[in-house]
Amino acid sequence: NTCSVRDNANRKIYNRVHEIKKNNAAARIGVLGCMATNFKKALLDNKSLQIDFIAGPDSYKTLPHLLTNLEDEEQKQFDVTLSEFETYQEIYPKRKAGANAWIAVMRGCNNFCTFCVVPYTRGRERSRSIESVVTEAKKCVDQGFKQITLLGQNVNSYRHQDNGAEHDFTDLLEKVSNVNGLSRIRFTSPHPKDFPKKCLELMA
After folding, report:
1. Burial classification of residue 39, based on how many CB atoms lie within 10 Å of its CB (0-12 exposed, 13-18 middle, 19 or more buried)
2. Are 57 and 34 in contact (CB under 8 A)?
């Protein structure tokens, strides 16, 4: 499961694939996540890597299909389709015990900064519903977490329509701050252009 924001992250995956093949030449290897969408054809065509399948970050639901086809057809499989709607809001990760729980509130980015591949590897911005984030926050408190960090590539550009009304990141922060049992809320990473005065007022 890969990251592709920096070259060092890519190199780690190349080394890991070679390590797996060295220890088990018959292993089936798939590259999932951002590296799959960033390098697509190059990964499958690289003969030294011997990758069997690739799947982008929004293609996790097609994994059973890809694996079945890999066995039946004996040819490399791929799905790197980026979704306009996938937010993973029904997926609750397993967490190790600790003080802080990370909660992804949105996916993708619309900024297209010159140095960054995120819009190309993870797609355009789309946000989870406030209700789903609050539900996950409550689950985290029930599991003993005292602090929550809200995650997004540009977290304060969060927008979600609910019954015709649009909610922004300040609305989300306010609802999460009302969850009983939370001692602290953090968020990353914000962009200055999307930092409204009402968010500062809520934090104050």
Report:
1. buried
2. yes
Mean pLDDT of the chain: 91
In this prediction the pTM is 0.82
Calpha distance 31→37 (Å, rounded): 10
Residue identified by tokens 């996950």 is 136
What letter does residue 144 receive in the DSSP assignment?
A: T
Residue 119, Cβ neighbours under 10 Å: how many? 17
d(CA 204, CA 193): 19
Q: Are strands 106-107 and 126-127 parallel, antiparallel or unpaired?
A: antiparallel
Q: CB-based contacts of 161: which residues, under 8 Å, 6+ apart?
A: 167
SS3 sequence of 74-124: CCCEEECCCCCCCCCCCCCCCCCCCCEEEEECEECCCCCCCCCCHHHHHCC
Residue 67 is inside which H or E element, if any? helix 63-73
Model pLDDT for residues 47-66, shown as the tens digit of each residue: 888 899 999 998 988 999 99
